[in-house]
Amino acid sequence: SYVLTQPPSVSVAPGQTASITCGGNNLGSKTVHWYQQKPGQAPVVVVYDDYWRPSGIPERFSGSNSGNTATLTISRVEAGDEADYYCQVWDSGARREVFGGGTKLTVL
Amino acid sequence: EVQLVESGGGLVQPGRSLRLSCAASGFRFDDYAMHWVRQAPGKGLEWVSGITWNSGTIAYADSVKGRFTISRHNAKNSLYLQMNSLKTEDMALYYCVKGLGGELRHTFDIWGQGTMVTVSS
């Protein structure tokens, strides 16, 4: 089955840039979505279809996907960005949705 | 306002059954695929099952295949998950989730607040 690999944690100082990676075999051939989940809340999509941003999501959030790695980049990080982030793809071969294990973003 | 409200969770013994429901409002329900996603306490997200707008395609995670059944009633704007032969590892918060399109490959753009399923003797 298809596996997405994320680092368990990423730390960044306020105002700096955070990069959260998601790895998978030939991931660039798939479409990646990213979700933000704050404690006690349901997830919210922050980037979909590799790099598109839903309305209401700050421009500081951006995405890319190439080769075996997709990346969620958060520029000018704020304390309110502290959350768990998950990547997700549709594995068309197995006909199932797949989530990465999640990355906890800590703002120092 | 677009809203998904889950119900039907609770405490159940291993081996027993439970049926979750999800009431949708604020959008044209029969245009979109719907999914169930679960999250065990302190763990990550796990997709459980998805169903296309017309119930033409249904998919399940291997962990629930043969035990869980997803269905929808478009006239009632409702999504369901019948869970049989429940195991302790099924204990989780179950989210009802809307897809961005009618097929299963789209992102999940709306999430409910979840209903908790506890499996314990």
Number of strands of chain B: 11
Helix content, binned percent of chain A: under 10%
Low-confidence stretches of chain A: none
Give the overall average pLDDT of chain A: 97
**Share of residues in helices of chain B:** under 10%
Largest interface: A-B, 25 and 23 residues
Write the H/E string of chain A, N to C: EEEEEEEEE
The succession of helices and strands of chain B, N to C, reads EEEEEEEEEEE
For the sheet with most strands of chain A, the description reads: 6 strands, mixed
Uncertain residue ranges of chain B: none
In what range is the share of β-strand residues of chain A?
over 45%
Radius of gyration of chain A: 13 Å
Features:
heterodimer; A: 108 residues; mainly beta; 6-stranded mixed β-sheet; globular; B: 121 residues; 7-stranded mixed β-sheet; 4-stranded antiparallel β-sheet; 11 strands; 0% helix; 50% strand
Describe the structure.
The complex is a heterodimer of chains A (108) and B (121). Chain A has no helices and nine strands. Chain A is mainly β. The N and C termini of chain A lie far apart (36 Å). The mean pLDDT of chain A is 97. Chain B has no helices and eleven strands. In chain B, the strands form two sheets. In chain B, strands 2, 4, 5, 6, 9, 10 and 11 form a seven-stranded mixed β-sheet that branches. Chain B is mainly β and 121 residues long. The A-B interface holds A 1, 31, 33, 35, 37, 42-45, 48-49, 54, 84, 86, 88, 90, 92, 95-102 and B 35, 44-47, 50, 57, 59-62, 95, 100, 104-109, 111-114.
